[in-house]
Amino acid sequence: MTDLISALPSPLASDPAVAGHIDAIVEALRASQASLTGARPADPARKESFDAAMKRVAAVRGRGPIMPYLGTGRGNGPLVELADGSVKWDMLNGIGVHMFGHGDPRMVAAALRAGLSDLCMQGNLTSNADSVAFAEFMVQEAARSSDLAHCFVSNSGCMVNEAALKACMQKTGGAPRVIAFQDCFLGRSVTMSQIGDNAPYRQGIALSTQVDYMPFFDPQLGPRSIEMAVWHLKQYLHRYPGQHACFVMELVQGEGGFNVAPREFFMALIELCKQAKVPVWDDEVQSFGRTETMFRFEALGLGKHLDVVTVGKISQACACLFTAEMNPKPGLLSGTFTASTSAFAVGLEALRTLRDGGFYGADGRNAKLHAAFRAHVARLVERHPEWFPPVRDAFGRESRTFVGGTGGMCRMTPFGGDKDRVMKFLNVLFEEGVMALYCGHGPYHVRMLPPIGVMQPEQWEPVFDIVERAMARSAG
Questions:
Q1: Is residue 369 part of a domain?
Q2: Same domain, 352 and 372
Q3: For residue range 382-397, what is the model confidence (pLDDT) as tens digits?
Q4: What string of DSSP letters covers 76-138?
Q5: Does residue 323 sit in the same domain as residue 382?
Q6: Structural domain boundaries enclosing 63
Q7: Nearest to 275 by CA among 267, 286, 283
Q8: Nearest CA among 102, 398, 373 for reference residue 258
Q9: What is the pLDDT of residues 205-224, one digit of tens each?
Q10: I need a labelling partner for 381 at 20 to 30 A (CA). Which of 40, 161, 326, 334 fits?
């Protein structure tokens, strides 16, 4: 189906003279990026001005950022230049937002074309063709393997999660309880902070949302883990009949540790939800686009069993998708802003590239990038077993699994998953030239979200050279 942008083209954006100017800007960008070929240390001459700038950041925000990041606005794919003159390998990318890295010419050109629009921000009362094309893209891709039929767009993953919960609550007549997996994360609004299983994120918030937490899949237990989860869910459904608005599931846990589970685990729980008329909501805000299929539910064959799905980050604008049966009544879902015109333009460019560029499938680019990551971790473990002692889980059980995740969601577990040692390593890693973060709540893992749109498997080599150097520094 021809998208609405093609059906209603902008005369200015298609003007050859304008296109020529955009091409010239992109070429100037490429020339500027040519010197960014690897990590480099900070320029000592910039230290005083950079420190002063970071103090201003801390003053205006009330505290300093988690890492001293202040960019110049110049980057080259996986590499980014900071205001202190350093260049880092960005394996975090705004916790997965910038999956085509920094300064990708295709994304820059899309943003420049968007700058010709009459609207900076679009909303529910002022939508141009690109916002509709974005929603249509989401529905068309999702509908290939699901019954999802409609799309509400917003500018935040947290807000589309709020929309999903509202739709589920309305469908169930205002049922007050939510079922969620332990270690889940859904955003930082008042309600989403309460559902998310991280106590510091809701410190000082009045608890008005009733949440029943379920154990996530435990690979060490295998089928026994499924039996345990089913038992827990039956208890909740029996204890609170008709009181659950939904079961929200991250098919790949993000903040919780890049944990994955097989289809049979989810299906056992979904079948119970269907029997009890509890809507099933799949939160893919962090995993969307990064695994071996665009939607994770495709890989697991779960699409036909889902009522609501939320996506975001990589797509720039965010979406709440729902079936025709879950379509809410007028007035429930709205908002002044859906997203910026540039977000729609860049998001569509990224999504089309991911769809058509060989990223998906068992032999796709995402799978190859993840396989290369695992190979580098395996070599690191082999060379330095002293940095990888057995990992103890919450039950005290030991494991020698040091690598995990799927696709562009990559994790490794050094130092036994000890939080203090992992945090020390991450700080040293940043100094040496690689940006990463942690995930999990014990054990703690090193989390990497490489820019799948541009990063090549061979680029793990310089990244892991720095990782090894940083681990040697922090291990002492």
A1: yes
A2: no
A3: 999 999 999 998 888 9
A4: EBTEEEETTS-EEEESSHHHHT-TT-BS-HHHHHHHHHHTTSS-SEE-SSS--HHHHHHHHHH
A5: no
A6: 39-96+362-476
A7: 267
A8: 373
A9: 999 999 999 999 999 999 99
A10: 40
